[in-house]
Amino acid sequence: MAGHVITVTSGKGGVGKTTFSANVSAALAMQGKKTIAVDTDVGLRNLDIIMGLENRIVYDLVDVVEGRCQLRKACIRDKRIDKLHLLPAAQTRDKTAVSPDSMEKVCAELRHLFDYIIIDSPAGIERGFQNAVAGADEVVIISTPHVSSIRDADRVVGLLEAAEKQCIRLVANRLQIELVKRGDMLDIADMLDILSIDLLGVIPEDEYIVISGNRGELASANPDSKAGKAYQNIARRILGEDVPLMALDESKGLFKRLTGLFKHA
Amino acid sequence: MSIITKLFRYRPLGSDTRASKNVAKERLKLALTYDRSGLARGAIEQLGDEIIRLIAKHLEINEEDVQINFDRTTESDKLTASIPLNIVQRPRVTAEPAPAAQKSQRTKKSHSKRRRRPRHAH
Questions:
Q1: What is the rounded distance in angstroms from the CA atom of residue A157 to the CA atom of residue B120?
Q2: What ipTM score was computed for the predicted complex, to two decimals?
Q3: Across the interface, do A147 and B28 touch by the CB < 8 Å criterion?
């Protein structure tokens, strides 16, 4: 069975592509699919450190593209999560070391080895982005509910449509339900209205993302993390399951109920 | 309004009381209309000024009421100019008002869930 290549991109930097790529790859692996996460941010690699695999790197994507090693040798198997793998980027080169053509060849080879190939794109719309989308069967656009992020996402959607990429879906990241309720944050309906693409999923703001990054752990492996649950739901949707959107509402804790009482005293 | 706020031609910070996400949505839709077309808003306004100057050479126009609009839909892109003219007055015919007719409110059409995006300039 041929593998499926999903590229994760955004235009805007810092909106959660790498965290998404790492977590959804892990979630797919936990669903039993042999999955590899690929870092195409040559020169500014981060997928390895987010996944906690930074000490395991021997070869990288540029070594593969330049023929210094076989693709299999560069793929790192995660020892904590079965069926999860990483193909890291080089740190001492830049994005001109890889071309869209060489990426297509790498993707073709990866399709023989893995069920799912998640490509973490760098920010921007230049060579790194072009490399990342070259072999994509589908593209996920990560956007936060901010004017800058949405504007950049729109540009990226335009470029992808011009390149005739078929399946382009939005993940709305870092939603803060309290701000949305107050009318101070764009909600999912607003983002869909502006961008006019299909929705893959929504991920709430979650402190555990900071903590998991610190530890080199993944939220999707933590049943107590709301973001982790969202990543798992997205993985299930990628696999074709019809999973309803999570309610982002936080139920009031005991402390909040007590302070509510005191206000009326 | 105090003297100080009157001196500013734009709204003082914090005086727009609309929910901020609605302001954001409006600004984004406008910005994206221009981004997608490859035209800059400032360029459209300059173009408007040049059109007004050109027409004013040949006709008497009411410059303050000129409207230049740039509209994009999935079917077409249009630059529309509405230019009121000052021509020698002649008696105008006004229509008789309709006798106590029910003026029905047109309800907003519901949008279909999946909208086609405007074409991009590339």
A1: 10
A2: 0.83
A3: yes
